[in-house]
């Protein structure tokens, strides 16, 4: 009986913490959006963050896009050739890359690379009193620390996703045509014919929303780091795990929503 | 200039401040002493608006600051400087950028003015020529002096020092104490120094307040506190462990 009570207590504690964190993330997001319009944009900070997030993440995102396209094209070829459907490999790869694989994988990598960096940097600043020093100097931390990171990520993520899509589709073409000998003209013609503009729009909308999720969760975790160096490690891990899970769960609802909105006719 | 009225604060379920009352006159140097964890730094954070009290009021230059929103505090924070215990220099910025930061935030864009003011402030803390160094390249004492230069670059009316000599060797600690006195004399600013270093307290304080169990337990001049026969104050001032504090 006592064990059941302990379990219920732990579950209750988990629920309370989850609601508390979710509420905190939404409040931080609201404060970030308010600060975005209330204060001047700090261009130097924004450009620095865009360099770190946008430029420095290119290799990781492009590699992911390329090998996802390659593996997917190979898998589809292995299955489709049994039915003589090799000409359908192009649109299958292209649509899967646009609607799911491109935005989800690119943003999962951003959650790992950029989300971890944001959480670690902000939590280090927090425990070394640098965030308090900012406040003491009359600077609003959300405006100075969070807005540039948030903006840089929501601008960079769709661009990086677009790059991942192009690379994935291009490498998929190379694998199917050059390695497995699929007819290039059919492959390309079908890819263009069956890939809709809406598929690309879905990729961009998803990556935009995923960027908001990653930035909000990582910044919230960083700004609410428990004291001590152990807190930085814990915060960074939690930021990546929570952002990745939130992204995957949100992806399901976005898929249903965007498909029902964009393909309702 | 500054008045704390019955400040109360609970942190993590523990009542840290239980009704702190303190007044600081213009140009007065008040030292707050007390044992580790007694709430000295928490009290300073209330003055700077970094923490909001659960009860009580903070008045600065006759204005009530408690209840103000985060951004409404900013004009007052510009009149109050704070030296943090760990210096809290921005580690991604050079010494020059750290010192220029508060001035840029006030809208100063003239690079020559910035260079001159930064050089002047660094000279005051005897660190002329260190503009291009990064905080990671500085020793603990140098970091504190740079942080002090940053805190006073806007010539605040009130300076708050959170454990200014903790972690420093006695010689560097002495130089920080002299600097606190020098700055007070030079700019006529009031100061509150939180410390448990009695040498520092005697040296820089016009008045010393002993914080115990979340309240100001005793206050007086350095001479009065040295003569005080209250066992709690006496043990702290003389550095004697007694009762539960004796180990072994």
Notable traits:
heterodimer; A: 265 residues; mainly alpha; 0% strand; B: 248 residues; six-stranded mixed sheet; 10 strands; 38% helix; globular
Would you write up a description of this structure?
The complex is a heterodimer of chains A (265) and B (248). Chain A is an all-alpha fold and 265 residues long. The model of chain A has no long low-confidence stretch (mean pLDDT 91). Chain A contains 9 helices and no strands. Helices cover 87% and strands 0% of the residues of chain A. By secondary structure, chain B is an alpha/beta fold. Chain B has a domain at 86-155. Chain B contains 9 helices and 10 strands. In chain B, the strands form 2 sheets. Chain B has a 6-stranded mixed beta sheet, sandwiched between helices. In chain B, a hairpin with a 2-residue loop joins β1 and β2. In chain B, α4 (111-124) crosses α5. The longest helix of chain B has 18 residues, at 170-187. The mean pLDDT of chain B is 87. At the A-B interface, α5 of A face α2, β6 and α3 of B.
Distance between the first and last residues' Cα of chain A? 56 Å
Helix percent of chain A reads over 70%
Helix/strand/pairing category of chain B: alpha/beta
> Number of helical runs of chain A?
9
Write a brief structural summary.
The complex is a heterodimer of chains A (265) and B (248). With 265 residues, chain A is mainly α. Chain A has helices at 2-38, 43-55, 58-80, 89-127, 130-136, 141-179, 184-194, 197-223, 229-262.
Blueprint (SSEs and pairs):
The complex is a heterodimer of chains A (265) and B (248).
Chain A lengths: L1 H37 L4 H13 L2 H23 L8 H39 L2 H7 L4 H39 L4 H11 L2 H27 L5 H34 L3
Helix pairs in contact in A: 1-6, 1-8, 2-6, 3-4, 3-6, 4-6, 4-7, 4-8, 4-9, 6-8, 8-9
Chain B lengths: L1 E10 L2 E11 L4 E5 L6 H8 L7 E6 L2 E2 L5 H8 L2 E4 L11 H11 L5 H14 L15 H13 L5 E5 L7 H18 L2 E6 L2 H7 L2 E6 L2 E6 L1 H6 L3 H8 L10
Parallel strand pairs in B: 3-8, 3-9, 6-7, 7-8
Antiparallel strand pairs in B: 1-2, 1-4, 4-5, 9-10
